[in-house]
Amino acid sequence: MHEHRRALILLVAVLVLAAGGFGIASYLEESQRKEDLSTSSADFGQLPTITWNGETWRQKAGVHSILVIGYDKSATDERVGYRDGGQSDFLMVLVVNDQDRTVRQLHIDRDTMARVWTIGLSGKEGGSRIMQICLAHAYGRTIEENDARTVRSVENFLPGLKIENTVSMGLDIVPNFNHLLGGVTVTIEEDLTSIDPAMVKGATLKLTDEQAYWFTRVRMTVGDGKNTSRMARQRAFIQAASQLMLQRIQSDGSFAATLVNSVDDITHCTMSKGRLISEMNRAATYKLGEAETLPSEHEYGRGGYMECYVKEEDVMNWVLDALYDKIS
What we know:
Blueprint: H1 9-12, E1 37-40, E2 49-52, E3 55-59, E4 63-70, E5 90-97, E6 102-108, E7 113-119, E8 125-132, H2 143-157, E9 163-169, H3 173-180, E10 185-187, E11 204-206, H4 209-217, H5 227-251, H6 255-263, E12 267-269, H7 273-283, E13 287-292, E14 297-300, E15 306-309, H8 312-323, E16 324-326
Parallel strand pairs: 4-9, 6-13
Antiparallel strand pairs: 1-2, 2-3, 3-16, 4-5, 5-6, 7-8, 9-12, 10-11, 14-15
């Protein structure tokens, strides 16, 4: 049994919560990302290596990656055509290290400009373009296809990382998850009174289910209206909810089953429900790190939509630190 799957719910519930954040962005721009990277296909049974800036790195033993996707529509909504999968407004990569029993989290800005493989209106492959990475999830007729497109873009954006499992969910997961936890407590860092008079800047609140939904979703009508502020709220919700979830698992032997059964119809996971419950009950033995982000620069594109640019050096530094050891 692969121990990395214990962390799947260190995220299903930890990140199940962060499926909020639903903006509208569809600006596409052609570009080319230069790479100075070579990956060797190691022989069977050997760990893969990467050569970067003249140095060779080997993947750490017992390290696996999981992608959590939160998209901006209900999981039960009908998909029409080949571009109706919803945008992945929440993306979190979990790197699970079975040797030191840790989980690292990388929160990817939904506006990150990355290579996305598209599908035309007729269903034919449309090639790839550089666009906001959140748009990858829109392409495909099924949730499996939507998730696969997102995985491909994330793996291309983070060279040397291989996604082992995925968990995806629609916007309806947040209030459900908050309810199961009995309310997640957060500190309000910006004025959100336009959506709820109680959400005053500086206040510490145990969120109602409706407040949790808007706390992770609202953007344009509060504060500076920027997605970066919304993502900061998502990370705050994740950190608070993850600790609360772990406490519940440790104190209540039936909580894992309750959680999985309650969200089963609005999540899509590459593991069986029974396996999820089993692994969740052991997940608390791993240390979950705080959500990390990559240094980035934001600017408005020609269509008026936000674009996030990340330097290749910063990408590779994170990948190598999280997944690889230098060997020469």
